């Protein structure tokens, strides 16, 4: 099993497309290199932000292999698994391992509101099928299935289930997890607008969205909090909040891709049925981004 720590800033990166709807690996590489230079701790491919549900199997393979080659072992490359069947989830894990991934992020079964028993069995089947370390993505707000602490109790019998992407939007859950499992289950905040609060309460890291456009600021907040420099982190976080709110929105992909354009590390191209923002909403988002870029804070040494 590839060894790494579930800690730090892990961008859930966007997938870049050309104007004629092909993978844009050139611009994708520009963004990944900006993430690396900012000091992120891992890269996550194929999440909601990555428009994974629109990618073909061949495109996913090409994206993983390209990223693994580009990263060249410097930081882990984590693949998100969001499948409708257990068989497909196991296959996706096998493919990720073959293609050189370092770890997996896993959603519960998609499009079926599985019971607790079924959800645990789904995760167990994948855990048994791979040696890769796994982070369970717990997001009952968007995906309607909560992985409870009692469910984690069963899942933690598997050594490769090691972390949770905590997106319940209940900060007190971090304390409950720590009280119950200590350091056995690493916690990464999955909600941009709760990230600093989560880190202060003991989260080990941040699976981030606006990092796609603002990597240095995101890493700075994490590093400053971990160093106990709360005032400096708070100043950056307050500047960042209007931008972070673009992540908790149904059009988060379009929002964040617009932000990537503004910082020079992305394009606006999305894949149908998604379309670029229009009208008043586009103007609103662009004004938030423009204000953020104009008032970008100085980043202290850390």
From TrEMBL:
Keywords associated with the record: Lyase
Record protein name field: Dihydrodipicolinate synthase family protein
CDD domains to which the protein is assigned, alphabetical: DHDPS-like
SUPFAM superfamilies found in the cross-reference section: Aldolase
Protein family membership: Belongs to the DapA family.
A single GO molecular function term of this UniProt record: 4-hydroxy-tetrahydrodipicolinate synthase activity
Keyword Lyase: yes
Residues at which pyruvate binds: 207
Organism for this UniProt entry: Flagellimonas nanhaiensis
Catalytic residues in the record: 137, 165
């Amino acid at each position: 099993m590839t060894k790494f720590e579930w800690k730090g800033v892990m961008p859930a990166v966007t997938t870049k497309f050309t104007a004629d709807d092909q993978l844009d690996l050139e611009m994708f590489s520009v963004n990944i290199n900006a993430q690396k230079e900012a000091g992120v701790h891992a890269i996550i491919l194929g999440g909601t932000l990555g428009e994974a549900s629109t990618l073909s199997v061949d495109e996913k393979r090409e994206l993983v292999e390209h990223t693994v080659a580009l990263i060249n072992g410097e930081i882990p490359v984590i693949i998100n698994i969001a499948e409708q069947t257990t068989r497909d989830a196991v296959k996706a894990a096998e493919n990720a391992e073959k293609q050189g991934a370092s770890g997996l992020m896993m959603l519960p079964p998609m499009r079926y509101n599985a019971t607790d028993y079924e959800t645990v069995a789904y995760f167990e089947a994948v855990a048994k099928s791979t040696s890769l370390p796994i982070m369970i993505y717990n997001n009952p707000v968007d995906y309607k299935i909560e992985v409870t602490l009692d469910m984690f109790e069963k899942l933690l019998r598997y050594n490769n289930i090691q972390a949770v992407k905590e997106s319940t939007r209940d900060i007190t859950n971090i304390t409950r997890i720590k009280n119950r499992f200590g350091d056995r289950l690493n916690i990464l905040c999955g909600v941009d607008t709760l990230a600093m609060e989560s880190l202060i309460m003991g989260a080990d890291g941040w699976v981030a969205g606006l990092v796609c456009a603002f990597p240095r600021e995101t890493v700075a907040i994490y590093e400053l909090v971990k160093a106990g420099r709360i005032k400096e982190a708070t100043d950056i976080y307050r500047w960042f909040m209007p931008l972070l709110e673009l992540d908790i929105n149904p059009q988060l992909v379009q929002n964040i891709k617009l932000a990537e354009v503004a910082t020079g590390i992305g394009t606006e191209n999305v894949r149908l049925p998604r379309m670029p923002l229009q009208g008043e909403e586009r103007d609103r988002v662009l004004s938030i981004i423009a204000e953020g870029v104009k008032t970008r804070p100085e980043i202290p040494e850390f």
